[in-house]
UniProtKB/TrEMBL annotation:
UniProt protein name: 3'-phosphate/5'-hydroxy nucleic acid ligase
Enzyme's top EC category: ligase
Example of a GO biological process term: RNA repair
Catalytic activity: a 3'-end 3'-phospho-ribonucleotide-RNA + a 5'-end dephospho-ribonucleoside-RNA + GTP = a ribonucleotidyl-ribonucleotide-RNA + GMP + diphosphate
Entry keyword set: GTP-binding, Ligase, Manganese, Metal-binding, Nucleotide-binding, RNA repair
GO molecular function, one term: manganese ion binding
Species whose genome carries this gene: Desulfomicrobium baculatum (strain DSM 4028 / VKM B-1378 / X)
Residues that hold Mn(2+) 1 according to the record: 158, 236
InterPro entries named in the record: RtcB, RtcB-like, RtcB-like_sf
Active-site residues annotated for this sequence: 402 (gmp-histidine intermediate)
EC number: 6.5.1.8
Amino acid sequence: MSKNGYAIFMSMNSGKMKDRLPFRLTALGIPERLLPVVRLCVRQMEEDGVRGKALRRLFGRLAQEPGAFADHPVLGGLAGMLGGESKQGVAGSVREVPWRVWGEGLDPKAVQQLRDGCSLPVAVGGALMPDAHVGYGLPIGGVLAVDNAVIPYGVGMDIACRMKMSVFAVSPDLVDSHGDELARAIEQETCFGVGGQFRARRDHAVMREDWGFSPVTRRMQDTAWAQLGTSGAGNHFVEWGVLDVTQAMPGLAEGTYLALLSHSGSRGTGGEVAKHYSALAGRMHPELPRALGHLAWLGLDTDEGREYWDAMELMGRYSAANHAIIHAAVAGHLGLNPLTSIENHHNFAWKETFDGRRVIVHRKGATPAGAGFFGIIPGTMVDPAFVVEGLGNPMSLNSAAHGAGRVMSRKEALKRFRRSDVEHVLRERGVRLLSGGLDEAPMAYKNIRDVMAAQADLVRIRGTFWPRIVKMAK
């Protein structure tokens, strides 16, 4: 459990927690609505050795003086719900919409962005992941559950940005013995950058779906087809590496494998969808102050909201198609067939049920981490990515970080680093970079191991992927 006591989150999915409490909430003056959080806190305190009468006395003091527990590593969030304050200020919004932070030393502006999201009339709860940094509307790493609405900039610009890993039952030593062939496959079968497209178009069934229901997807369909199977700029990549599976998972035994990993999304079409519907949402909510303008929402009981939702879902299928084409082309170039594949996405909204209530969960730069859900959390061009299994922690809305997260802007990275700085790190880590910008220097990111340690209660590491041959936008 996070040691950040200043942010709060109400557990809304406690159906599996049937523990009998050693006291009655009403006797202590704790509202029944907080029962899921109390159960979780009791279980953690009992694991720390606090039981019986001592536990009852502790929760009795908490109910009477919640402010005294604001910085408690286990009870801080519950204290905020009961009216306490921490050294960081009031715990939550005036509406008492619950939210919670994972990680230490996060950018206060990112924290404020999540607080703003939790102040919306449609908000139900939120969470902030340890890779968090500032974004438009919601911060990157922001998770927000709302009631019957969707926030276009709560989803983000690169809708359904995705991770995909293909694992091959061949020797991982190929990255050394046949490195040139692996590199050539990436160079010839991928395309990167803003506006990038293949001379000969790739094909996929997603392009024969209905794109005419929205003025944006209708207008962008031809561009989307031209960019099918390509990757964007920024932190998007395709890379070969070595996967160490430390704990067997479905379809994959313990061992060391050659693997192909990619990260990209819905290209310029997704960005156009985001801009169009965010502007539309803003016009529909002129009452929002300027600071909250990027958090304007569309009701799912409106034509506009349903249209955006359908466009978002289409972008999800389009993004998945891009990855399917990339992996088929690169592997096919070498005559390889994958043993299995793993994929997950972020920058999306999901219809989920918590405590019997249907909500819309936005994960902007955050990834699903429901119990038993497998996904990939990447580091940098030289740092490992992790194959993880979700633990289904309801306090994070079943979410986890989507990557390492930046510690500085792209502009700052370009000012601070030189090509020689990156080349030194690449040589030190044994990574071959085919192309990539200085704005993606590994030093511009947080330490991925610190991020993983901060979310040990959200995901379990099942495998570690070490990048060896990397291609990004120039």
